[in-house]
Each structure stands twice: as C-alpha cells, then as structure tokens.
Amino acid sequence: MSDLYRDLERKHMAPYWVVDTTLEHDEDSQVMDKRKAIPYHWSYSQDIEPLLHLSAELISLETSERRSIVLVNPGLAPSRATLTTLYMAYRQNDPVEIMPPHRHSPNAIRLGLTGNQNFTGVEGEDIVFGPRDMVLTPHDTWHNHGNEGLEPAINLSVLDLPLAEALNSIHFEHDYEEQAGESRVSRQMQSARFPQKYSEMVYGLGGLRPNFVSHNRGTGRASPMYVYRWDAVEASLAQYQDWDGDPYEGIQIEYVDPLHGGPIYRTMTFKVQLLRPGERTQPVRQTASVLYAPLEGSGHSLVDGEKFQWTPFDTLAVPGGYWCQHVNESETERAVVFIASDEPTLTALGFYRKFARLKTEEVVRIDGVGR
C-alpha cells in the first residue's frame, strides 16, 4: 500500500478512497481538506491607515502607477486574495495625483472613504466623488483614478480578481489610445465624452429610462450606472429606519443595475446594512463569501462564536460556511456597514444556499430554494 501512495504522489495523482478508517466519509474529507480562507479582521486605525500614509511618503506615482495595500487572507497567503473570490485594497491618493488609464478583465468598484474630490474616469465619463460614493469600473473598461483635491484622499476597492485568476482569465492593458482624425494616438488621460453627472442624469430616477441614448456601455455586461451616490443611499436608509426590517440582515439596501434590477455585476453584489441602536441580528450561514466594511458606528460580529470588534473603515472577511451575526453596541447611535459578496457567482452556478438559526436553535433554509 505504501508503494501505491508513493507512486501516486510521484506522478502527481491522489487517491479518492478511504485512507483513515476511523473517520466517517474520509474520502470526501480529503477533497475538502485544502487551503481555505479564514474569518479575519483588519483594523483601519491600527493596521491599515499608518501603512497607507507611509506608502504615500515612500512611493510616488512616477515610481509606480499602483500604490494600493491589498488585504491578504492568512488562509490563502501568499495569494493576494481577501476571500477565495474577492480582493479588497485600500489606496491613498495624494493631492492632484491622477494615474494613467488602464483596463483589466476583473470587475471592480471604488468606495470613497475620505476626501471630497476623488476622481475616476471610466469609458469617457469623468466622475468626482466623495465619502461613501461608489464608482464602478466594469471589466475591460478603460479607467483611471486619482485625486483632484488639495488634500490626501483614501478609498477602498473590491475586485473579483481571485475569481478571474482561478478561471485563468486575467489580463491587463496599459497602452491607452484615442482616435484622432484618421489615426490612433496614445494618451495619458481619457478625453471626456459624456457630460458631468451623466450616470445620475440618465439612471438616477428610478423607474424612468430615456430611450434616446445607448445603454450598451462598456462591454454591456454590467450596470451602465457608473456612480452610485451616497445621498441616495442615505435617503433610503432614513426612509426605512423605522421599519421592522429583516431579523437576519436588519435594514439592508442593495445596489442594482437600473436596467435589469439585478446585481451590478454578474460576479459580485454590494449592499449597505443599517444596524439601529442596540440592534443584534440573528445568526446566518451562507455559501457566499462576504466582506464587511463598517462606515459608521462601532460594534462586533460573531463568526462561528468568535468575536470580532469593528470600528469605521475596518474590514471583516467572512468566508462561506460560517455562522455570522452583527451587534451594534451603542444604545444611542446607529451603525452602517458596506458589504461586498460573491453571491451572484454562486447563484449563477446553482451553489448558493443560505440558512438561519432560529431562537429555538432550529436551522432553516431561507434562500427560497429547497431544504
């Protein structure tokens, strides 16, 4: 038997049968026993912010067009992945710092944390945004980032890069060109092809769509609304704050494609969760992996019983399969949490499942499909 195992390993094969007879279904456990993401918390004030400031001092735009700090899950290291399918990074842009255009296969969003003049140009739409505004850069769209203000600005990004990497479909392009007469010329900045606040004018009125403009923006496989302003989210939270909400998710708002009503990307979805003073959600377990980034307030989350304290701009990574619930520790102030999830990917593949633990300890399925 030892010779068989040695030969399998030498020839880069593996057995799929019971090896340890003391374990039930050992053959299945072997398939599952591999490197996995673990629940993990990064403190913004203690871990992230000091290194952002230091990186901005030491690394200039002339040295590197990229200057982001990627959150690496200890269970997935050395891979640059925050969860199995999701990648989160923080970036500080110095005053009047604009990077050249590029594009790539992963989808991405950028969420403003500080600074009122963050900049993203995407497919000819110039977007200036502030704290909590969310900007889309769908896959294969030319875009560039920066800061038009006179003070440093910090934002976070979420990409489906680990998913694209697992599918062997990552590519990056940096040689941006525009048509000039009959020829193509290289440029370091995109020319604006749309008026200011185009996304808001065309898609900002729910239920109304102008039919005289093209809605096939970029590759046509993502929301055509490239910026989601916090003012609209805040208005929704205020409108629903006194409703009962969901016992497992509290008051939760999802960013959606205004044309189709579904997630803004086919691979990721983004939400904002309101936790009212003293609110404690009931435990939920799902197959989707989720990133939580508190924007306001303080509290803690219980992940399979392990307590993670959080404050604004932290990140908590929760892989699929873990019980999770959130607690707003303040009895007078609300907490607001930004959420990124790979739920659309799992739903499209038929793998998405979601369960709740009732106060009676009974576990029930709540995704609306089967038991």
Overview of the molecule:
The protein is an alpha+beta fold and 371 residues long. The protein folds into two domains: 44-228, Jelly Rolls (Sandwich); 230-371, Sandwich (Jelly Rolls), CATH 2.60.120.10. 16% of the residues lie in helices and 31% in strands. The strands form six sheets. Strands 1-22-19-24-17-16 form a six-stranded antiparallel sheet. Strands 2-3-11-6-9-15 form a six-stranded antiparallel sheet. A six-stranded antiparallel sheet has the order 21-20-23-18-25-26, with no helix packed on it. The chain starts with a helix and ends in a 6-residue tail after the last strand. The model has no long low-confidence stretch (mean pLDDT 92).
Named CATH architecture of the largest domain? Sandwich
**Could you give the distance between the termini?**
41 Å
Strand order of the largest sheet: 1-22-19-24-17-16
3D shape: globular
Number of helical runs?
Answer: 7
User: What is the averaged pLDDT score?
Assistant: 92
| Low confidence ranges | none
| Computed structural class | alpha+beta
Q: Number of folding domains?
A: 2
Number of strands: 26
* Helix content percent band: 10-25%
For the record, what is the CATH homologous superfamily label of the largest domain?
Jelly Rolls
The CATH class assignment of the largest domain is: Mainly Beta
Taking the sheet with the most strands, its summary is: 6 strands, antiparallel
User: Using only CA atoms, what is the Rg?
Assistant: 22 Å
